[in-house]
Amino acid sequence: MSNVEFETDYEPIPTRFYSDDNPNGQKPSGDITQWLIKKGYIRDESSAKGVLLGIIILNIILTSLIIYFFIL
Predict the structure, then answer these.
(1) Which end of the chain is more exposed for a tag (fewer CB within 10 A), N or C?
(2) Is 7 exposed, middle or buried (0-12, 13-18, 19+ CB in 10 A)?
(3) CA 2 to each of CA 5, 7, 9, 72: distance values in angstroms, whole numbers, following the listed order
(4) Which distant-in-sequence residues (6+ apart) come within 8 Å of 48 by Cβ?
(5) Alpha carbon 58 to chain centroid distance?
């Protein structure tokens, strides 16, 4: 067998959401949330959850209608 050695001393790569740069410990909001706030559709990040959930539900309904009428 071959003598393969793995290096075990590594530094974890900081990710965008879980880096230590954020002193409050909160995750920064996403790009779509910031865009919705900038356009004035929502006022804060807490109301973004409902709006994004509505967008997802609307997309699922539209996709299922398109599949039903055009593919089946």
Answers:
(1) N
(2) exposed
(3) 10, 16, 22, 55
(4) 29, 33, 36, 37, 42
(5) 18
- Give the chain's length: 72
Structure tokens at 32: 């779509």
Contact call for residues 29 and 48 (beta carbons, < 8 A): yes
Per-residue pLDDT of the chain in tens (72 residues, 90 and over written 9): 678 777 776 666 665 554 445 555 556 677 888 888 889 888 888 888 888 899 999 999 999 999 999 987
* pTM metric for this prediction: 0.53
Cβ-contact 36, 54 below 8 angstroms: no
